[in-house]
């Protein structure tokens, strides 16, 4: 099956030779071709170039993209899409003055979601999560990482990971699974951290790897959650079971989580709302991708990741949604890109790089995703007719997506 897209006003994120990630000043460069064509063979990008160089081609399907932009679909490297119910009440409680921390301290927050999840059937969780996955696909996401972490019991964690596996089997979108058993301590282990960590290491991890239910291991390294020492212990165990770390750090406090992640060669360190100069320094010349989650900052009214300082230091940066019921009930990467420009002062070029190629890197899939490169997946966004790609962040809140292709197929 050959699909040909013609008259593309501008084809974005063109990379003749695939790059694993872009860092520092390179992030400002978004290579494009104006008045372009793109050829898809089955599920892969087979060719692209300027319209004047379009070779004779027999296409089974031709899409005329006059006035429209084409770009690789978003790579959302950090979500918690599989959860039960919602936390609307906590949202209103925060409006009325309680803090996220106060809500968590009285048994709300992650523990509230864990209670709901453990009371909900696997089928029901699948149905609720499926709707969210379909929504983000329509919003232009073509690859997504999904974490467990709302079970906090052996059964609950496995249930979430099985749902993620079932989503991956039933949908064309690329899905990477992360085991986040260390998201919080269940109430009964509040005074017995060792007991719960033993459960993670001795009961959850063996079962997860036996059934190939996860690619990565995550820990919420934060004051009141997992200490740096506990985080290291869990990363070490995960690595022994073949899971590379991708961890939550520096959301509210800078306590050394970044340095721990780097020590264990984490694929990414995520959140980074609170960054000290030593944290930025530590990330230099490492293979660890820093990931910012601006819609979490927006929703919780907490600081934004200091993108300008990080990029000036030569670091790469990826953008992701953090879609979850507590801190970010939104999986809209278009909003993430706009918010990164508006609030973090990233340029449109930097934000698009961060949400495509660097997002792919943060999931370990930059060989196959994140740029317009021959041989990569034909996961594409075709915009509505727009004056320039600046519209994507500029017209924040508007839906500028006309068509989404995943694995070369139009999704509706
Ligand atoms: O990434 N920070 C830790 N975990 C999630 C939110 C957890 C929740 O409130 O449910 C996050 O923001
Ligand atoms: Fe998260």
UniProtKB/TrEMBL annotation:
A GO term, aspect molecular function: iron ion binding
Binding site for N-formimidoyl-L-glutamate: 150, 324, 326
The protein's required cofactors: Zn(2+); Fe(3+)
Keyword Signal among UniProt keywords: no
EC number per UniProt: 3.5.2.7
Gene Ontology cellular-component annotations: cytoplasm
UniProtKB keywords: Cytoplasm, Histidine metabolism, Hydrolase, Iron, Metal-binding, Zinc
InterPro entries, sorted: Amidohydro-rel, HutI, Metal-dep_hydrolase_composite, Metal_Hydrolase
Gene3D superfamilies: Metal-dependent hydrolases (3.20.20.140), Urease, subunit C, domain 1 (2.30.40.10)
Recorded catalytic activity of this chain's protein: 4-imidazolone-5-propanoate + H2O = N-formimidoyl-L-glutamate
Protein function: Catalyzes the hydrolytic cleavage of the carbon-nitrogen bond in imidazolone-5-propanoate to yield N-formimidoyl-L-glutamate. It is the third step in the universal histidine degradation pathway.
Name of the molecule in the record: Imidazolonepropionase
Taxonomic source organism: Flavobacterium glaciei
Species lineage: Bacteria, Pseudomonadati, Bacteroidota, Flavobacteriia, Flavobacteriales
Gene (UniProt): hutI
């Amino acid at each position: 099956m050959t699909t040909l897209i013609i008259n593309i006003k501008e084809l974005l994120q063109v990379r003749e030779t695939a790059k694993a990630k872009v860092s520092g000043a390179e992030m400002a460069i978004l290579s494009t071709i104006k008045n372009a064509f793109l050829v898809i063979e089955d599920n892969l990008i087979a060719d692209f170039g300027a319209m004047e160089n379009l070779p004779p081609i027999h296409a089974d399907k031709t899409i005329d993209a006059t006035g429209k932009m084409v770009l690789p679909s978003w790579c959302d490297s950090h979500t918690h899409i599989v959860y039960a119910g919602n936390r609307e009440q906590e949202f209103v409680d925060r409006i009325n003055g309680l803090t996220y921390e106060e809500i968590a301290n009285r048994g709300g927050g992650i523990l509230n979601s864990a209670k709901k999840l453990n009371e909900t059937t696997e089928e029901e969780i699948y149905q609720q999560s499926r709707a969210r996955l379909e929504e983000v696909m329509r919003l232009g996401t073509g690859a997504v990482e999904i974490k467990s972490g709302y079970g906090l019991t052996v059964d609950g964690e496995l249930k979430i990971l099985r749902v993620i596996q079932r989503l991956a089997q039933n949908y064309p979108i690329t899905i990477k699974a992360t085991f986040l058993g260390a998201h919080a301590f269940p109430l009964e282990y509040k005074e017995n951290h060792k007991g719960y960590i033993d459960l993670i290491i001795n009961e959850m991890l063996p079962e997860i790897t036996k059934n190939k239910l996860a690619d990565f291991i995550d820990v919420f390294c934060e004051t009141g959650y997992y200490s740096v020492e506990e985080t290291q212990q869990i990363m070490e165990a995960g690595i022994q079971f073949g899971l590379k770390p991708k961890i939550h750090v520096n959301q509210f406090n800078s306590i050394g989580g970044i340095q721990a992640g780097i020590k264990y060669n984490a694929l990414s360190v995520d959140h980074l709302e609170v960054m000290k100069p030593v944290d930025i320094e530590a990330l230099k010349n490492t293979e660890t991708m820093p990931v910012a989650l601006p819609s979490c900052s927006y929703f919780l009214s907490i600081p934004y990741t200091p993108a300008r300082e990080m990029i000036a230091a030569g670091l790469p940066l990826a953008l992701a949604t953090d879609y979850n019921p507590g801190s970010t009930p939104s999986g809209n990467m278009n909003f993430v890109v706009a918010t990164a420009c508006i609030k973090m002062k990233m340029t449109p070029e930097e934000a698009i790089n961060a949400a495509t190629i660097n997002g792919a890197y943060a999931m370990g899939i930059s060989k196959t995703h994140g740029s317009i490169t021959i041989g990569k997946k034909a996961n594409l966004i075709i915009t509505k007719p727009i004056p320039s790609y600046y519209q994507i962040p500029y017209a924040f809140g508007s839906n500028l997506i006309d068509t989404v292709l995943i694995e070369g197929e139009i999704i509706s």
